[in-house]
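Build the 3D complex.
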Amino acid sequence: MMVNSVYKHLGRLPSVILGGVVAVAVIAGSMSNSGTARAEGTLRVGMTAADIPLSWGQPDQGFEGYRFMGLMLYDGLINWDLSSSNKPSGLIPGLAESWTVNPNDKTKWIFKLREGAKFHDGSEFDADAVLWNFDRLFDKTAPQYSARMASLVNFRIPSVSYNKDSNTKGWKKVDKYTVEFTTKSPDSFFPYQICYILMSSPAQFDNTGKDWNKFAQNPSGTGPWKLTKMVPRERAEFVPFKGHWDSSRQPKLDKLITIPIPDPNARTAALLSGQVDWIEAPSPDAIPKLKERGMVISSNLYPHVWSWHLSRVKGSPWNDIRIRKAANLAIDRAGVKALLGGYAIEAKGHVTPADPWYGKPSFQLRYDPAAAKKLLKEAGHGPNNPVKVKMMISASGSGQMLPLPMNEYIQQNLKEVGIDVEFEVMEWQSLLDRWRAGAKAEQANGAHGVNVSYTTQDPYSSFTRFLRCDLHAPSGVNWGYHCNKEIDGLLEKASLAFDPKERDIWIAKVHTMEVDQALFVWVVHDVAPRAMTTKVQGFIQARNWFQSLTPVSMK
Amino acid sequence: MLTYLIRRILYVIPICLGVTVLVFGLVHLAPGDPLSAVVPPDAPEEMVQELRVAYGFDKPLPIQYATWLGRVLTGDLGVSVARGREVTSELALAVPNTLILAVGGTLLGFTLGAFFGGVAGYFQGRWIDKLATGIAITGVSVPHYWLGLVLVIIFSVEMNVLPAIGMGPNGSSTWVWDTEHMKHLVLPIITLSVIPMGIITRTVRATVAEILNQEFVQALHAKGLLNHQVLMHVVTNAAPTTLAVMGIQLGYLLGGSILVETVFQWPGTGSLLNSAIFERDIPLLQGTILVLAMFFVFLNLLVDLVQSAIDPRMVR
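Done.
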């Protein structure tokens, strides 16, 4: 927004400044324009992160950390299929060639490991490496245990069995290339959870003096890229790992450079001035300028939802389903999409109708202010007696798109049907603190909802953590204390369905009920716009938070 | 003079201690959990508590302060919670980068400021005074962030003659004083120099104008001294005030500008502070602010000593 407003005012610059412009341009032009030669096939990416994500195995910086560090240097036992842009991204074999649940004891999973896979340091990947990596996250007596690393990922794998008192582990070696995992209870979501655990090299840990910070400077995984240089807060450089086990994922580039540029205006300027070839998340109002300058804008649906998470604690207006439905009917989602420059998809639920988990909800999310007013009237509200709600929102934040203008737009929509919204605007981390604390906490300060955008990448992240009765604070992030035993039953059936198609059917039933009961106020799904020069070739934007840069080349 | 010198140096000790209390207190006054930005929001409380203990955030604040101060006195500023790197090594990377910008901004800002201020003061009330004053007011009024953006749009995006971000084609680790790297300096230095230029212009103008109205100047003219000889006396008398202001401005510039370094992605102390604030990285935040505050304290000491050397009345 700033860039455009600055552009608009350029014409009014006084002549004295223009004189200065000419002077600086002359000085700059007199300097050598030789530039520094770059190797052919070098791609420079401007990330939104403020620093290079941690490179020791489990990355920080959220899913961008996985995208631009974790899944480049490392593999999981199970990987995401990032090869297609026109179907939902599913799970595919990674360092495990296959995984099966024991039909007689569905808490036991057998993972057959890939033979011949090597770490960047040349050491071999095998069952011992798997056990070592799990010990790294759970066993406090292991030299490789890292509390910091564990804090980044253990919450993503809640099913795995581990007793910290007796140090009894839910992972054991069967033979050199077979590992058995035990879950706390039968859980078909386990493969989705284990794909977040990335395999670091035990040999390299020894080589770097058993010090994770030193390991991070010279990391070693089995992934398709090797880290060759890292300057904190400035850049990370990668080259292809020629010994990667999957020849179809051999990078085509000679070199990849990632540069943290958290400010969106700086990212746009860097792309337009030729300092990077690709930027993540250009701001919507910069996109017309980028297109005008010949940049390619890539976008695709991915598992993201921008919604209002509602409080169901005593006294919350959202306890009345008619008010929840009215709010969902009052929002002009097409208008919100236009506000975002068209780079969004209007929400029809927590996931999109293209998702196998969508189901068949009878409540249609549409813009129908008349129907919203009728529902509010039935609920005892009218122009003289509006519903009053207080929402916690952030001024910015990961995945939050344009939270202030979007929320203000929605506030206006709701005002028009008789819902008065008061905002408590706060910094992103403060919002997350309060989100974690739950709607009953003192920090919630009586708020009836919170605006945090979510991933819908896997069943647990999409549904279980928000809907299961026992996952409210401090056990989880069911912020609003939602509880419906029927939904709990459906979630349990889904977790007990080991046939993926059957599991999807149960999850779809959960989603159907979630939409029919209007448990959230859903607004849009992001489409992850990224801008690049026409030199960038071969990128396939998968329907995933993660992306593969291995097929990319430079023309 | 020697007594003054010793007394002035001794003053620095309680000031430094006070600075450590302020730095620690202000950082911990900010609401929120010091680990909230470092651990993912879904991380269970048990895990967060484990980290809290590991980093010592579970202890009472006076004990945390005493532990931190003890380490600081041995030169250990701790380890960044977010990045796992030593704060001293982070500062060792960032401070030289900011120094490059600060020295450049200082030279440009002070030179222009002294020139415009001197001319405006000497020709008070004339059109040249009004022009210089106008430039000074513009300098102090224009927001850094806006000016940086405008310069980037003009010279990087539209004209494509200067780089928009960074400290060189391959980052700061390969910095050399060649044309390619110097091009990266031009826009941030111009942006950074504008405010000190404005402030120094106004200070020098006011000081020169005031001195020119003093009786000793008339006496010098009456003695038959030439204009440039009188001017030398004026400059000598204006120097202490100007130096004091320059010292403060240099302190600000050495502290790095969060906004300028963010706009230009300059990997200096401002950028480091920005990261530390957003990640609530308390050890990094404390260490960086402390070092920058110490710069300020020692710079003021230096300015005081130079002032007293120039103007012996200061000692009295």
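The longest strand of chain A covers residues 105-113.
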